[in-house]
Specification:
Length: about 425
């Protein structure tokens, strides 16, 4: 119907809403492992799709607004998500202790319903009014001034585009006519052919984005940072519940503190760190993660009890620190990729980045599971957990050795 982002957001919201509603009403499907897996997979698909659409809309807003506003816009987005995470964690902890599982699933369907209603109030341009890539790149170059290198691919493309525009308006008009004719022809094509052309254009544009070293090398570093550090979060969760005897409601409170740490990390980055180089930010982030591992080692060795610090305080502080530090890692690259991404594939690029990031997290979890297996760490057997966390601590220094993949002069504002 000529809409650009909203139809995808509506589809994603429906995919997130329907599984919760069905599982809340039908106890038979809820008790079946196969059905439960299918419904939860569909729900996660909808959530991921909605996340990608929103990221694309933010990337477009970053592109069409002034560059200095990019950090503020990302900060507003992440702060809103953190606030929602705080409310959701508080509500989840209460629901887990006071409601039946069917009522919890029905409660989960309320927020997607509100999200579906909010789609009616989002304004966007139609597909036919889409800005041409050349015009958008030229506009970005004028807005950013000297923010891009003269030798960078974007600057060269904008300079060449400006020269072509100065040669005459006649060629520009003819291109516009040809473009409109091609769009009319495409409307008469079959759905399969339209999908093929759309996929072909997306792959071409994505390849054009990947030719920018800033994006390719940064994505490579984030993937390596995940797979070289074993993820022992699942083992630590079982240790907290089985050995430390922390209740589920308290772990929900810990997530509230974690979301608060994410919000504080967003504020600190936007106010004090956005002009710092990416290499320095990422190096400091991994040093901070090393300090976090030392806190976990203190809990496992019971050193905190010797100093009169309770386990709950250690868990709460560690949760806030972890989310805040991880925010320092993501924000600069998200802002930078939003500015350098070619027009029209913002959603594709962000989806690819998050997919690579999630793949790295999954591989890191397998590496952590392998480490736990080698050290005979299992539910009810945590004798070697201290050694496992020590190995994880040492592995945190491996990504620092690969920081050469991050362009030396790159910052969160591409200055």
């Amino acid at each position: 119907m000529g809409r650009k982002r909203i139809p995808y957001l509506v589809i994603a919201t429906v995919l997130s809403l329907v599984p919760w509603f069905i599982l809340g009403l039908n106890s038979t499907l809820r008790d079946s492992r196969g059905h439960l897996m299918v419904f939860l997979t569909v729900q996660n698909l909808g959530s991921a799709m909605a996340d990608v659409v929103v990221d694309a809309m933010i990337a477009e807003a970053v592109r069409y607004d002034r560059a200095s506003f990019a950090g503020d816009l990302q900060s507003i987005s992440w702060s809103a998500m953190a606030l929602g995470g705080i409310c959701g964690s508080l509500l989840g902890g209460y629901a887990l202790s006071n409601l039946q599982i069917g009522a919890i699933f029905l409660l989960f369907s309320v927020l997607p319903s509100i999200q579906l209603l909010s789609c009616c109030f989002v304004e966007e341009n139609s597909v036919t009014s889409k800005v041409l890539p050349e015009d958008s790149i030229v506009r970005d170059s004028h807005m950013n001034g000297s923010t891009l290198d003269e030798d960078s691919p974007l600057t060269k493309n904008s300079q060449n585009s400006t020269r072509r525009r100065k040669k005459g308006k006649k060629n520009g008009k003819s291109r516009a006519v040809n473009t409109s004719k091609s769009k009319i022809l495409e409307k008469g094509d079959s759905l399969a052919l339209q999908l093929f052309r759309s996929l072909k254009e997306a792959i071409y544009d994505l390849g054009r984005a990947f030719r920018q070293p800033m994006i390719l090398r940064s994505m490579s570093w984030f993937f390596l940072a995940h797979i070289t550090v074993p993820n022992l979060s699942t083992v630590i969760f079982y240790y907290q519940t089985e050995v430390l005897k922390l209740e589920a409601s308290f772990l929900g409170t810990a997530r509230v503190v974690g979301w608060s740490g994410l919000m504080v990390g967003t504020f600190i980055y936007n106010r004090h760190l956005k002009y710092m180089t990416l290499r320095r930010i990422l190096m400091c982030a991994h040093i901070g993660l090393t300090f976090l591992n030392l806190l976990e080692m203190a809990v496992v060795s019971r050193t905190n009890i010797a100093f009169g610090v309770s386990d709950k305080i250690m868990v709460l502080f560690g949760s806030a620190l972890a989310d805040g530090i991880n925010q320092f890692k993501f924000m600069p690259f998200l802002i930078l990729s939003g500015q350098l991404c070619p027009p029209g594939i913002e959603g594709t690029l962000f989806a690819l980045f998050m997919s690579i990031n999630n793949l790295g997290t999954t591989v890191g979890s397998f590496v952590g599971a392998g480490l736990a297996s080698v050290l005979n760490i299992d539910s009810g057997s945590f004798d070697n957990l201290f050694l496992g966390i020590m190995i994880q601590t040492l592995c945190n220094f491996i990504p620092i050795a690969f920081l050469f993949l991050i362009p030396k002069e790159a910052t969160g504002l591409s200055t």
